[in-house]
Amino acid sequence: MKSLSEIDTVSKRSSKAAGYSWGIAEEIGKNIRLLEIFSLPGIKNLNDFLNKKKNIKLENLNLIAEDNIPNNSQYCPVITGVNFLDQIKTLEALSKIKFKNIAYPLLFLPFVSRASEIVGKRILLKLDEYEFLLNFNNNINSNFSKKEIIEIAKNVSIKILENEDSFNDQEWRELYKLSEETFVEENDSLKQSGAGAGLTDND
Amino acid sequence: MNIPLRNPKVVMKLSRLGSFHQSRLSFLRSFLKEFKDWDYKRDLFELNKNGYGTAIFSFKKKNRVYSLICFANELDENERSDRVIATKWDTAFTLFDGVPTKLDIDRLKNEVPKQEIGRLSYKELTLSRANKSVRVFNHVVESLSNGVQPNKELLAKVGYLYRTTAVYGSGKFGLADRFRIKNREEIYGPFRLEMMLVYLVRQFTFDQVNHVAKNRNPNKAVNLDPEICKSLGIGNSTGLGMAPFIVNHPTLLNNWIYAREASLKQIREIKNAAIIDSNLFKDCLKKSIKNITSWNTESEYQIKKIKSLLRDLNKFILFLDNEFDFNQEYPFNRIYEYVEEKYEEECVEYVVSMMLEPYDNIVSPFIKKMSSEEDKYFNIPTQRKVIELKTILEDKYSEILNIDFTKKESNFNFWFISKNKEEPRLANRFDENGSDLEQPLAIARDIKKLYETLSIYKDSSTIALFLSNNSDLRHVVRRAFIAEKFPYSEIQDNTIGKEIVPIDMLRLKLSFFGALKFDPRSDKWLRICMFQGAPLPEQLKNYDEHWVYS
Predict the structure, then answer these.
(1) DSSP label at B223?
(2) Backbone φ, ψ for residue A153 (5° rounding)
(3) Contact A87 B382 (CB under 8 A)
(4) Closest CB from A3, A22, A87 relative to B475
């Protein structure tokens, strides 16, 4: 089994060799490590992407908008991802961000996962039929469980979710009431001695 | 009195970093301190009469066990090489996490001797190999088998029976990643498991030499005197592989240097030094002269440095004995200011190391802070503004911004990774091929380029906007924001200039390891000795923490 350190280093070096700058290659190394930690096929997708990169008409998306449509080409997952990460503080204000045609979108995913940690909000990422709930870069819930290469996602959407409870008030009240059963009912004596404060608040 | 931390623009110069010496902060000393209460055991020793076979040594405490597995193999004379091109060694080692099963040992017997081309697993923590100093090893076997102790002068001159040529950890070749073990309290502090490996290898060398001597002449042979064992360490040949490490791990570098600088600051702020402390300082200093006079090297560069160090230290000792009054206020601050004014950098940093000796209470808390969670500082704060980044560069890199990189001598060298050994190398940019594959280690040049490029952007522009047009500078933008938080994270010199002495970078790292007797064999590799004078495993429970000077 390859160590994460090896995965990071080899991904970084191969990305540099494929034409990315050292700074971008460092990002890719960290991202592939992240994908592999989350049991997503990072190395498999990166290897295929870097091998075929020269034959794909890739477009760099520098300034990300609400709707992003490439001109008869595919967005580079790395440059789009780097700029998404870098611009996340601005993009946070948008309710939904859409992209058409991102090449090798699993390579775009870790940038979005890291963005989730930066803004402190969950992000729902949809890559065609696959959904990924990115939880603050700590874990990923997904209906994608295959170890396969995704060469393109034709419709990509990103929704930055507001921090809301996943339960209703009634459920919370019921659970809270149960938790109260660990408390002790105070009699007069305990009320006077238990808190440790003085007997009057006017001193 | 509030003494400021020393200026990073002074401390982080390569000539200064290349003058660092071992200290209480050094990893091999902090390793011994941490593991002194652990139970040491030789679990397996299956060597044939010539000393070839398998051995296992362990440290155990409660449910935690670390086992060094040693494989000693026969090696033809013409196959023995310390150079990185070697493919066979006298011995190969791995530090195993726990107690290895027979299956583990069989697997490792096949992989560990292959080193870089073998495959390790998450169960193994570190990997190394070592070659005999044949002359010394044979002499010791010969002497012991004849019932006499070896020639101490010869042993003192070399200082070890074996020397390692590499020690790997942190996920290399399939070894365990650091994240698997980083929460173990006993290995807070960098390179602790690498130090454990080297320390146990040292014990293997003594047991092996005794075993071979005994088999050669069972009736007459004696064991190597424990005092002689104690005086021997493990040699190490080290090349440029280590140099980029300190550039590639800026927050870690900061934490090492900061521990030293913050300790020094607190010691300089001591108003009244206790007699016991000032005496310990003087005692260590005087005894340490023995280490310097037994420091052998043929390197003119190092001989000059040793001579200067010895001359300065002798003058300093005379000054301490005849002129200096430890009863005055802030005595260590006075001493620091005096040596900084009077002596060379080599001596200044030597005295700084000595000043740390009496103050375990000050130094020890920093030892556990010398590791780094590097990933925490990886993201670039892209919402910040160009003016902020410019200010950081002007503040943290002011001297680097003065370097003229249009001059050939400023841009003379380039760092690359050799294809055949996957190790870093340095070469002349104008004579050699390969500069198009340069590693991102020319930080000074790239910082200057970043500063120049920033000047055409509006101060109010965001870093996000800047990076969307300048991805080639992303690696140094990241570093600059790290340098803002970590004052000692950056070497304040040009690492590709004509005048660079790469062994300065090696010496910095090796001083933190705790190496003694730096012996440069060129400007790009050197030999050192580790654990020379250190207590033996059976002596660990009650040992003198100042053993380096005894």
Answers:
(1) P
(2) -115, 120
(3) yes
(4) A22
Domain of A73 in residue numbering reads as 4-160
Q: Does the residue A185 lie in any domain?
A: no
CB contact under 8 A, A3 and B478: no
Tens of pLDDT along B164-218? 988 999 899 999 999 899 889 999 888 999 999 999 999 999 999 999 999 999 9
The tally of domains found in chain A comes to 1
- C-alpha to C-alpha distance for B124 and B101, rounded to whole angstroms: 13
B476 to chain A, any CB pair closer than 8 A? The answer is: yes
Contact residues for B402 (Cβ-Cβ < 8 A; gap 6+): none
Which of A86, A113, A116, A137 has the most B C-beta neighbours within 10 Å, making it the best mutation to test the interface with B? A86
CB B506 within 8 A of CB B242: yes
Tell me the chain A residues in contact with residue B382 when contact means C-beta distances shorter than 8 Å: 85-87, 89
Interface of B with A in 13-32 (CB under 8 A): none
Q: Reduced to 3 states, what is the DSSP secondary structure of residue B528? A: strand
> How confident is residue A203, by pLDDT bands cut at 50, 70 and 90?
low
pLDDT digits (tens, 9 = 90+) for B385-421: 999 999 999 999 999 999 999 999 999 999 999 887 7
d(CA B57, CA B204): 8
What pTM did the predictor assign?
0.92
The CA distance from B477 to the nearest CA of chain A, in Å, is 9
The full set of domain ranges for chain B reads 36-239
Burial class (CB in 10 A: 0-12, 13-18, 19+), B431: exposed
| Domain assignment of residue A201, yes or no | no
ipTM of the predicted structure?
A: 0.88
- Asked, for residue A139, whether it belongs to a domain, the answer is yes
Give whole-number Cα distances, B541 to A137, B39, B212, B536, B538, in Å: 45, 9, 29, 10, 7
Best residue in B120, B382, B383 for a mutation probing chain A (most A CBs within 10 Å):
B382
Summarize pLDDT for B430-443 with one digit per residue, the tens: 999 999 999 999 99
CA distances from B453 to A110, B70, B466, B495, B516 (A): 29, 54, 9, 21, 44
Cα–Cα dist A103/A153, whole Å: 7
According to the 3-state scheme, what is the secondary structure of B64-103? EEEEEEEEECCCCHHHCCCCCCCCCCCEEEEEEECCCCHH
CA distance B173 to chain A (A): 7
N-terminal to C-terminal alpha carbon distance within chain A: 69
CB contact under 8 A, A63 and B121: no
* Token representation of residue A177: 């009431």
- Look at residue A172 and tell me if it is in a domain: no
